[in-house]
Write a structure and sequence with these properties.
34% of the residues lie in helices and 23% in strands. A four-stranded antiparallel sheet has the order 4-7-6-5, covered by helices on one side. Strands 1-8 form a two-stranded antiparallel ribbon. Helix 3 packs antiparallel against helix 4. It folds into two domains: 132 residues, no CATH class; 38 residues, no CATH class. The protein is flat and about 65 Å long. By secondary structure, the chain is of the alpha+beta class. It is built from four helices and eight strands; from the N terminus they run E-E-E-H-E-E-E-E-H-E-H-H.
Length: 190
């Protein structure tokens, strides 16, 4: 399991005598970007070409505008690559916050950039809440998946406890499906 602590972009007062809190401001734009970028680096989800703060829109000391959400959009570029645009949805018009890019243009890159967009959306829309992620997404190249498949296949040849064997069979089946392989288990394993 992985814990994801989203970013708190709003600044709130201490509770008053009645227990109410009041919005006192927003996080500095550069600080929010730096924290998001650090998170993406920490979890290995940086776009491979670049990930840039929109410093033409924000100065270092600027705070984020009040917004009702953050939109993370992925699309193919006009010339090359796949782009991730992160916009703050204000009452007036979307405000460009950051952009990421990969030079690759294949389906794997498109889906990978969507995974990064999902992580950014969770971080920027989560309001400081902590989320638990029970499934661990792993993106492997075909060669890596083949190596893991073979390793799991070998592990299934050795006696294990029932639960470990069940998990290995499940992982083996998922890898086989991803690789387009038919699996034939010689003996019933469970």
């Amino acid at each position: 399991m992985r814990k994801i602590e989203s970013l708190e972009l709003e600044k709130w007062s201490e509770p008053d005598e009645t227990g109410h809190v009041h919005l006192v401001g927003m996080e500095k734009a550069q600080v929010a970007f730096d924290r998001l970028e650090a998170h993406l680096k920490d979890v290995g989800m940086m776009p491979d070409e670049y990930f840039l703060f929109n410093d033409s829109r924000f100065r270092k000391e600027d705070t984020l505008p009040r917004h009702r959400g953050v939109l993370c959009n992925v699309e193919f570029g006009a010339s090359e690559g796949i782009y991730l645009d992160i916009c703050l949805l204000t009452d007036h018009k979307p405000v460009q916050f950051a952009t990421g890019k990969t030079l690759r243009e294949d389906a794997d890159a498109f889906l990978w950039m969507h995974r990064i967009a999902a992580e950014c959306s969770l971080m920027l829309n989560g309001g400081g809440r902590v989320y638990t992620m029970k499934e661990l997404p792993v993106l492997l190249t075909e060669e890596e998946a083949g190596a893991v498949y073979n390793s799991v296949d070998l592990d299934l040849c050795n006696p294990t406890n029932g639960e470990e064997e069940r998990l290995l069979v499940s992982a083996h089946e998922k890898l086989a499906a991803a690789l387009g392989r038919d699996i034939q288990l010689d003996t019933p394993r469970m």
